[in-house]
Amino acid sequence: MPIIREVSDLLKVEFHSAVARISINRAAKRNALSDDLVRALHNCFETLPEAIKAAVLFGEGDHFCAGLDLSEMRERETGEAMHHSRMWHAAFEKIQFGRVPVIVVLRGAVVGGGLELASSAHIRVAEESAFYALPEGQRGLFVGGGGSVRISRLIGVSCMTDLMLTGRVLTAQEGHQAGISHYLVGPGEGLQKALELAERVAKNAPMTNYGVMHVLPRIADQSIQDGLVTESLMAAVAVSDPDTRGRLIAFLDHKANKVQFKS
After folding, report:
1. pTM of whole model > 0.85?
2. What are phi and psi of 124, to 5 degrees?
3. pLDDT higher at 263 or 100
4. % of the chain surpassing 70 pLDDT
5. Least crowded by CB within 10 Å, which of 69, 145, 174, 181?
6. What is the pLDDT of residue 51?
7. Marked catalytic residue, from 6, 72, 116, 174
């Protein structure tokens, strides 16, 4: 039986064995991101129990997230606006550089801040209904939730420039080809696919997952020689972990599955 930790107007969290199911609970607002919701996401990912090894994030209803809740928009001085953006950064960093890998389910609107939120996850599963846009340019705004860093790395600066300047909307297929999603599935299949992936990821050695989440992105930002040294350090840490030693022994004793291709 799942353990329900929190049910509120904003976020619902359930624990199923080693996997957390986290749903944005603002379907009437297309799961738009209010300040309170951003804070709830920050708190949720910061306080996941030690027993949780992977998380699935999705939106209730037909949409993942339609971005910033514009009903909360008001005039902000420069300093206040910057602190607001940094609050979003802190919340999304708890996802990207948190304790566990996060798989996100994308359906319907994945727009503006919703795309920024999705880009902070580690694996993205999109349904055919998903569509992507960065309408900030048409509203006199600029991305403020980390999109200029994360989205540009997913789809490239050129593609992001097009989205922001023209208001272009990408379909699920176009977004998949651009590099937003890792998996593209049929209607209603996203959550099940994400849960299957999360259960698989949760079985990995924790130190390996840590290296992929925290070290790999930093290696990508380093020079080649610095990256190679960092890689060697992380490889040494991972291989010396007791969990890894047990897995290697199991493989050598023919007690672990070999890699096989499945069409």
Report:
1. yes
2. -120, 125
3. 100
4. 89
5. 174
6. 96
7. 116
- What would the pLDDT profile of 179-196 be if each residue is shown by its tens digit? 999 999 999 999 999 999
Write down the catalytic residue from 75, 93, 136, 231.
Answer: 136
Structural domain that includes position 238 = 206-252
- On whether both 72 and 183 belong to a single domain, the answer is yes
Number of domains in the chain: 2
Hunting for tokens 């005039």 — which residue is that? 75
Over residues 139-185, the pLDDT tens digits come to: 888 999 999 999 999 999 999 999 999 999 999 999 999 999 999 99
263 located within any domain? no
| Annotation says 60 is catalytic | no
Same domain, 140 and 65: yes
14, 128: one domain? yes
CATH of the domain at 242: 1.10.12.10
Edge-first strand listing for the sheet containing 3-7:
3-7, 11-16, 19-24, 54-59, 102-106, 123-127, 183-185
Cα 184–Cα 190–Cα 196 angle in degrees, nearest 5: 100
